[in-house]
Structure formats: structure tokens, C-alpha cells
């Protein structure tokens, strides 16, 4: 069949156990106005273009899924500090999150958020390409098509929910009337289930459609020679196509340009340096100023309810776990052997930065507490709330670069960055690099 042959393909066959008379009855009961709504005339829509967008998502979305699940494990669900804590049959195999490479969480979280944003233009283009299917009547003619529709609802609904709530969480601080983390976790599993079922059902169709046309040929085809794809049983090709106003290569360039544009607006939050000035979608945009402490934060001292009195001369660090508790003020901590480490800190919203941190090694503090080989450490903050404490694994405590930081880039920590002392651990999620530390309990078991 030539590319200009628009003869109608035969109606698809009904599946086993799905009475032919049922969908014929539904066909005669077409809702009023549906015919007008279903008149889509773009000559670009068709199985090939839809499959190109689908292939990009098939490559990119698994990366977003896997990095998201890894990030959940980075929060230590074995300690009950990942949200949600109890996930029943969806419990993932847990392990002690490593400290090396030190940029591991920066990579996984940066990919999860950054790639998720970059793929939004492709998601929108894919939805545009399959709009005619939303108005197909009857909605399904076989049990296989019913399953496909359900998987599509889970896929599209779950994906849009993840994108919208994720964007809102990046830009605004706790705007939801529900737990973002809980909703994002369960929404992700709805999306994953729909994604797996939909790919299983449509992979062969996608592969066949991609082979139907040459990408190289389409990239060389100008607007004047752009014609609709042949009619087939997919319902994507318009039966009444309008003249083309854009070539397929133009459509691909538009979507690709959108991906590059989003990348420019977001990549700086992870890459850092001068590119951060281009990151107009910088999460919540909070930067406490210039100088050594002039890098992003997630929660200010004022927002956390930290007062000058609590962090003043009367502040003490309490270490427990050994034969008896010991306490140190900041002057005593500053007099101890100090270590400087260049480490990144990465936040769940996607931003990250690398700084030079100076302080006392956590393993030295464990020894002072009388627990030189702790199985874990429980860190408490002066602030209140769900992130006012964190449990560290043995490997995280004993890593030579794990610090109770007192300074950053040669200057004392600012109040917003955790003065008088904060935890900084390689590859640890930023929210667990506890600020305004008041106590550490080194546990032997």
C-alpha cells in the first residue's frame, strides 16, 4: 500500500468470549456529539509517529522508575524512616545504602527528577498523538482491548499524577492536604503496573509500526512531501486529513527542542556552577545569600523553629550508647582533631551542590562515646517534625569522610545550614544530613 492510499482497513475482530453483537449494539448507541469531537484532521498522527514517541518513553521512563525506587531505598526503609514506612507486599529488598561513590544519591535523584522533567514534552506529544483513541466508539471490542484501556488509564493517570504533584512539590513547600511522599509512592506503583501491562500488550505493535517507515527518510522529508500514513485498524490516522502544516521532522524537532529547553531550565540545579543561574525551575528558589554559606537549602532555621537561644553558648552535643553519656560544647568540638571532605549534598527536590565541609569524624565521636564499632547511630535535631531525626548505618558512621560538620568552605555554618553542627555523610540523602544536631546515640546492636 502506498503512502497516499487511504482505503479504510477492515474493522478489527472481536476477541474470544466478547460477543460480536455487543459492540455492534454499542456502535448503534453512539453518544450524541461524539462524532464531532472525534474529527481530528492532523495528517501527522499515525502509528509510526506515536511509536517514535513511545520508544523514547520506553527508554527513558524505566530509568526514572529505577532511580526513584533506589532513592526510596536510600532513605533506609529498614529503619522505618522512608515514607511510606509500611508498604506491605510492595516492600523492596533492603540493603545498607553505600557511601561510595559519594555522588551516588546525587546521581540517582538528579536523574529521577531531571530526566522526569525532560521527558514531559515527549509525554505531552505522545498524548497528543493518541487523542483520537480517547473518542473511539465502542471503547473496546475485545477483552484484550478492555485490558489495554485499563492499563492505559493506569499509565496515563499515574504518570500525570506523578508529574503534577512532583512539579508542585519541587516549587512549593508542602502545598498538599496529604503526604506528598505517600501519594507519590503509591501513584508510582499504579503507573508502573500500567506501564508494564501496556508495554506487554503494545510492544509488538510498536515494533511493527517503527519498521513501517524509515526515520532517516522522514528526517529528509520536507513539508511539501509530508502525507498521512495509510489507514489501518489503530484509529490513529485521520480519515479526513487536512493539508500538512508541519513535517514529521518538524514535529520531532519541536519535541526535541522542548526537551533541550527543559534540560537547560533544570540541569543547573544538579550540575551547579554557572549553570545554576539558568535553572529557572530551581526548587523553591531558596538561597540564603552569598559567601561560603551561599548555596541552596531546603528548610530555613526560622521555618524549623530554631532560635538563637537554642544554638547559643548553652548548646551541648550529647553522645550516648556507651557506659555513660558524654557532652561537648562547640568550643570543645572545635578543639578536636578535624577533617575536611569535599562532598555533595542532594535534596529530594532534585537540587544538589558540592562543598568543602570541616568537622569531627563521626567515627571519632563514636569512640569518645565508648562505641568504637557501632551497628548504627540515631541522630536527633533541635527541630521538631518528621525529619528531626535520622538513623545511620554502621558503614555511614565509620566512613572516613562522615562528619559532624562545624564549617563549610572555611566559614562557620550559618543558622540556615545547621549551626552549631550538622551531619554530612557521603551519598546520604540531604534530608538525613541532619542540621542543628543535639544528640547522637551510637548503638551496638
Describe the overall structure.
Residues 314-443 form the Oxidoreductase molybdopterin-binding domain. The chain crosses the membrane at residues 48-70, 111-131, 152-172, 178-201, 251-271. It comes from Pseudonocardia acidicola. The chain is an alpha+beta fold and 445 residues long. The protein has 2 domains: 20-271, no CATH class; 308-443, Oxidoreductase, molybdopterin-binding domain (Sulfite Oxidase, Chain A, domain 2). It is 41% helix and 12% strand. The protein is built from 15 helices and 10 strands. The chain has a 5-stranded mixed beta sheet. Strands 3, 4, 7, 8 and 9 form a 5-stranded antiparallel beta sheet that branches. Strand 3 (339-346) and strand 4 form a beta hairpin. Helix 3 (47-74) runs antiparallel to helix 4 (104-118), helix 3 (47-74) packs antiparallel against helix 5 and helix 5 packs antiparallel against helix 10 (248-266). The longest helix has 32 residues, at 180-211. The radius of gyration is 28 Å and the shape is elongated. It starts with 19 loop residues before the first helix and ends with a strand.
Q: How many separate helices?
A: 15
Number of domains: 2
Provide the succession of SSEs.
Answer: HHHHHHHHHHHHEEHEEHEEHEEEE
Terminus-to-terminus distance: 72 Å
Task: Please give a quick description of this structure.
The protein has 445 residues and is an alpha+beta fold.
Amino acid at each position: 500500500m502506498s503512502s497516499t492510499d487511504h482505503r479504510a482497513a477492515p474493522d478489527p475482530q472481536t476477541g474470544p468470549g466478547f460477543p460480536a453483537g455487543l459492540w455492534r449494539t454499542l456502535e448503534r448507541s453512539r453518544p450524541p456529539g461524539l462524532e464531532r469531537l472525534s474529527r481530528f484532521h492532523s495528517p501527522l498522527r499515525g502509528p509510526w509517529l506515536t511509536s517514535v514517541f513511545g520508544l523514547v518513553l520506553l527508554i527513558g521512563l524505566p530509568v526514572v522508575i529505577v532511580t526513584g525506587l533506589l532513592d526510596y531505598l536510600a532513605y533506609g526503609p529498614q529503619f522505618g524512616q522512608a515514607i511510606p514506612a509500611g508498604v506491605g507486599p510492595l516492600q523492596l529488598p533492603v540493603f545498607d545504602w553505600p557511601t561510595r561513590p559519594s555522588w551516588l544519591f546525587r546521581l540517582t535523584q538528579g536523574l529521577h527528577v531531571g530526566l522526569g522533567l525532560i521527558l514531559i514534552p515527549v509525554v505531552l506529544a505522545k498524548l497528543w498523538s493518541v487523542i483520537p483513541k480517547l473518542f473511539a466508539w465502542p471503547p473496546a471490542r475485545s477483552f484484550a482491548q478492555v485490558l489495554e484501556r485499563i492499563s492505559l488509564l493506569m499509565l496515563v493517570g499515574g504518570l500525570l499524577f506523578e508529574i503534577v504533584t512532583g512539579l508542585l512539590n519541587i516549587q512549593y513547600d508542602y502545598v498538599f492536604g496529604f503526604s506528598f511522599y505517600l501519594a507519590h509512592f503509591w501513584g508510582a506503583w499504579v503507573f508502573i503496573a500500567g506501564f508494564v501491562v501496556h508495554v506487554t500488550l503494545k510492544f509488538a505493535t510498536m515494533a511493527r509500526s517503527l519498521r513501517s517507515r524509515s526515520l532517516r527518510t522522514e528526517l529528509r522529508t520536507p513539508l511539501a512531501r509530508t502525507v498521512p500514513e495509510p489507514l489501518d485498524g489503530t484509529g490513529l490516522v485521520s480519515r479526513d486529513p487536512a493539508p500538512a502544516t508541519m513535517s514529521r521532522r518538524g514535529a520531532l524537532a519541536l519535541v526535541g527542542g522542548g526537551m533541550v529547553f527543559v534540560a537547560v531550565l533544570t540541569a543547573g540545579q544538579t550540575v551547579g556552577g554557572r549553570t545554576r543561574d539558568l535553572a529557572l525551575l530551581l526548587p523553591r528558589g531558596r538561597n540564603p545569600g552569598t559567601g561560603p554559606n551561599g548555596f541552596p537549602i531546603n528548610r530555613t532555621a526560622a521555618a524549623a523553629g530554631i532560635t538563637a537561644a537554642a544554638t547559643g553558648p548553652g548548646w551541648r552535643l550529647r553522645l550516648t550508647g556507651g557506659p555513660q553519656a558524654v557532652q561537648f560544647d562547640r568550643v570543645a568540638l572545635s578543639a578536636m582533631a578535624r577533617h575536611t571532605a569535599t562532598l555533595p549534598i542532594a535534596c529530594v527536590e532534585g537540587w544538589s551542590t558540592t562543598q568543602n565541609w570541616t568537622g569531627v569524624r563521626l567515627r571519632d565521636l563514636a569512640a569518645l562515646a565508648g562505641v568504637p564499632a557501632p551497628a548504627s547511630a540515631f541522630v536527633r535535631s533541635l527541630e521538631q517534625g518528621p525529619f528531626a531525626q535520622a538513623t545511620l548505618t554502621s558503614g555511614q558512621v565509620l566512613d572516613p569522610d562522615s562528619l559532624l560538620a562545624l564549617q563549610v568552605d572555611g566559614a562557620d555554618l550559618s543558622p540556615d545550614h545547621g549551626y552549631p553542627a550538622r551531619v554530612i555523610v557521603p551519598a546520604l540523602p540531604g534530608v538525613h544530613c541532619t542540621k542543628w544536631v543535639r544528640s547522637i546515640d551510637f548503638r551496638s546492636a
